[in-house]
Amino acid sequence: MESFKNKIKLFFLPCEQNDYRARIFSGNFLLFFLIGAALLKLTFALFLCSFSGNPFYADITKTALVDLANYERAKNNLPALAENPVLNQAAYMKALDMAQNGYFNHVSPAGINPWHWFSRAGYDYKYAGENLAIGFVDSSEVQNAWIASPTHKANIVNNKYKEIGIAVLKTSFGGNPATIIVQLFGAKSAQSKIASLVPAKTVPAPAPDANNALPASEQNVLGASIAAPDQNSAAFKLSLFLARDFYLLMQWLIYTLLAVVIFLLALNFILKADMAHADLLAKAAGFVAVMIVFALLDHDLIAALIPRNFVV
Q1: What is the pLDDT of residues 151-175, one digit of tens each?
Q2: Is residue 239 scored above 80 in pLDDT?
Q3: Secondary structure letter of residue 227 according to DSSP
Q4: What does the pLDDT read at residue 81?
Q5: Is 185 helix (H, G, I), strand (E, B) or coil?
Q6: Of 221, 220, 192, whose CA–CA distance to 122 is shortest?
Q7: What is the mean pLDDT of residues 283-296?
Q8: How many Cβ atoms sit within 10 Å of the Cβ of residue 291?
Q9: pTM for this prediction
Q10: Cα pseudo-dihedral 65, 70, 71, 77, rounded to 10
Q11: Whose CA, among 26, 132, 211, 251, lies 20 to 30 Å from 280?
Q12: What is the DSSP letter of 310?
C-alpha cells in the first residue's frame, strides 16, 4: 500500500524524488490530454447537433402548439384557427398571474375566472375556452396530453372557435423551475366584428370585470383537468437528464480536468522555479488559453445550438 501511495505521489505531485517534475507530465501525456479534451468537446457539440431535433431537446413554442392544434382540427375537417395577438396577451396575463400567485387552476384563489383575462386584454368574445398544462419539455407532449383528455380536446376541435392565443411562461412554480402553458380559444361577438369596421373612437371599450363571463349556454367547454406528464417515468427522467443535467455534467468534467492540469503545472514550476522548468509555466499558460477558447465556444456555439432553458 505504501508503495502504491508513493507511486501516486511521484506521478501527480512534484517532489525531490522526481526532481520536482511530476511524472504525469513526462512523455506525451499533455498532448494526449489536449486531444482528448478537444474530442470530448467536439463529440458533445455533435451530440447536440444530432439530437437538437429530438423530443428530448424540443422546446415548447407558441408556433408549434398553434400548428399542432390546427393539424388536429384538419383531421376533423375543421378550419384552422388564426393566432390572435390579443388572445396571446390574455394568455400571458393568465400565466403570469398563476406564477405570481402560486396556483395552477382555471379559477384563481381570489375567484377570478378565465373570462376575466379575455376582457382585460380587450377581446370581446362570444365563445371562449381555456386549456392549461404544466411540467412538459416538448410541444408534442403537451398536445398529446390535451388530445388524450376529452375536455381539452373538445376545446381544440370545437367548430365555434375561430382564433387561438397561447402563452408559454418559463418560471419558478412551487420552488421548482416549471413551464406554464396557457391556450385560449375565442370567437368574437357580433358587436366586436362591427366595431372593427368603424372608427375605434365611436365604440367605447368595455370596462374590465373580474367576474366577467358569458351565460353557461353560450360558453364553450372549458378544459377542467390539469395536463401534466408522469414525472416518475423512466422516459421523463431520461429526457430531463439529457436536456438539463448532461450539459452541466460535461461542462463540469471538462473544466475541472483543465483546472487540475493547470494547477499541477503551476505547482510543478513554483516548487522548483528555475529555467529548467520554465516549459511547465508555458504549458500552464497554454492550457489557460485552451480553457478560454473552450469557454468562447460554449458561449457562441453551444448556446446557439440550444438557446433554451429546459425545465421540469
Answers
A1: 899 999 999 999 999 999 888 777 7
A2: no
A3: B
A4: 95
A5: strand
A6: 192
A7: 82
A8: 17
A9: 0.51
A10: 160
A11: 251
A12: -
Q: What's the distance, CA 154 to chain centroid?
A: 28
C-alpha cell at 146: 390535451
Burial class from Cβ neighbours inside 10 Å (0-12, 13-18, 19+) for residue 2 reads: exposed
φ, ψ of residue 255 to 5 degrees: the values are -75, -30
User: Cα separation of 16 and 280, whole Å?
Assistant: 17
Distances (CA, A) of 262 to 41, 73, 82, 138: 18, 60, 58, 40
Contact 188, 171 (CB under 8 A): no
Comparing CA positions, the residue from 242, 257, 254 lying closest to residue 298 is: 254
Cell numbers 443535467: residue: 245
DSSP label at residue 49:
H
Q: What is the pLDDT of residue 255?
A: 83
- Taking residue 16's Cβ as centre, other Cβ atoms within 10 Å add up to 8
Cβ–Cβ under 8 Å, residues 160 and 242:
no
What distance in Å separates the CA atoms of residue 147 and residue 153, rounded to the nearest whole number?
5
Amino acid at 1: M
Closest by CA position to 62, among listed 40, 84, 31, 77: 84
Burial call 102-131: b when 16+ CB within 10 Å, e when fewer: eebebebeeebbbbbbbbbbebbbbbbbbb
The neighbour count for residue 289, using CB atoms within 10 Å, is: 10
Strands 163-173 and 82-83 come out as: parallel
Give the Cα separation of 5 and 261 in Å (integer).
20
